[in-house]
Structures are given as structure tokens and as C-alpha cells.
Amino acid sequence: MLTSPFELRALATAALIVLVALAARDDLLRHRIPNSLNVAFLVLGLGLAVIAGGWSGLGKSVAGAAVGCATLLPFYMLRGMGAGDVKLMAVAGAFLGPRGAFIAALLALLFGFVLAVALLLWRLAEARQVAPAAAADGATAPWRVAATISTTRKERFPYAVAVGAGVLAALWLLGSLKVLSIALGIR
Q1: Are 61 and 186 in contact (CB under 8 A)?
Q2: How far apart are CA 37 and CA 27, in angstroms?
Q3: Residues 105/68, Cβ–Cβ less than 8 Å
Q4: In this structure, is the dihedral angle defined by the CA atoms of residues 165, 167, 170 and 172, taken in order, positive or negative?
């Protein structure tokens, strides 16, 4: 039976890693994060918080979920990401608490920006490879760049990958990955 705070933190860290891995996989394959996945892990996160800290732990878990949701909600409202991404960050916040949720959300936004720029550069490089054919059609270089940017903006972006990277970076910064490695006997 898990009784020590150390063991509970290791279990919560492992569960959170499984959550973001499954969410990223589904987002990459289906461009969706199932509600059933978010709900199941939200219940798990809240339950572990109650076991670890009683009502106080539950309050921190709910506050973490609220911070995770509130941090990404404006981007959903501006159509910059899907609702599943916001819900995923909220569920991660239930495991991380308010401070950890805020750190993870900021890192997810940073990773999302980096991934978006990388995707845009990749698309521009692809467009350059077809540039000779486009030039024969009379398309100018600035027009091709503008068309590539416009097309890339409309693509579905698997933001769960960025959320997962932000959560993993936050777990590392908060020392939770070290706790998990020690619990697993990896020094």
C-alpha cells in the first residue's frame, strides 16, 4: 500500500507521464484528445491528492486544474488550440498543483511556439524545393512564402506534444522526475 508522500509523488509523476504520452499519441494520430482519457486521469489526480493531503490536498489539486485551464483558455478562445489541449493542461494541473500548473503551462506555450516555428520553417523548405516549378508558373518568391504561411496556419497542430513537453520540463524543474527515478531504483 502506498503510504508515504514520496511514494505517492512518484506514482503521481508516473501517472502524469502516462497521461501526456497517451494524449500526445492520440493528438498526433487522430488530432483529438479523448474526453475519457482526461476524465479518467482527472479522477486519478484528484484521488491521489486526497490520499496525499486530505481536503487540503484536494483544494490544491482543484486550484492546479483551474490554473492550468485558465492559462491556456485564452488561446482556445482565439482559436489557437483545441479544447482538448486546454482540458489536458487542466488535468495536468490537478497533478501539479497551482504553481506547477502555471510553470508547465508557460513551458507548454514556449514549446508550442518553438514547434510552430519549426513546422513553418519545414513547410518553407518544402516550398523552396518546388520553387522552380512555381517560378515557371509565374509565382513570385514573396507570394510563395505568403501562401506557405497561410496554408501552415490552417493546419491542425498537435498541441498535446507541446503540453507534454511543458509538463515533462516542469516535472524536471520541480524535482518530480528525480523522485520517480529514485522510486524506480534508478539513481
Answers
A1: no
A2: 12
A3: yes
A4: negative
- Sequence spans of domains, the chain: 5-183
d(CA 86, CA 71): 8
Q: How many Cβ atoms are within 10 Å of 48's Cβ, its own excluded?
A: 21
CB 171 within 8 A of CB 16: yes
Phi, psi of 136 (to 5 degrees): -65, -30
User: Per residue in 136-171, pLDDT tens?
Assistant: 555 555 555 555 555 555 566 899 999 999 999 999
Report the sign of the C-alpha dihedral through residues 63, 43, 183, 168, in that order.
negative
- Which ranges of the chain does DSSP label H, i.e. alpha helix? 5-30, 35-77, 83-129, 131-136, 141-153, 159-173, 176-183
pLDDT in tens, 50-90: 999 999 999 999 999 999 999 999 999 998 899 999 999 99
d(CA 144, CA 147): 5
Q: How many helices (H) and strands (E) does the chain have?
A: 7, 0
Handedness of CA 121, 162, 26, 30 (dihedral sign): negative
Q: Which residue has the cell 498543483?
A: 97
- Residue 148: the pLDDT is 53
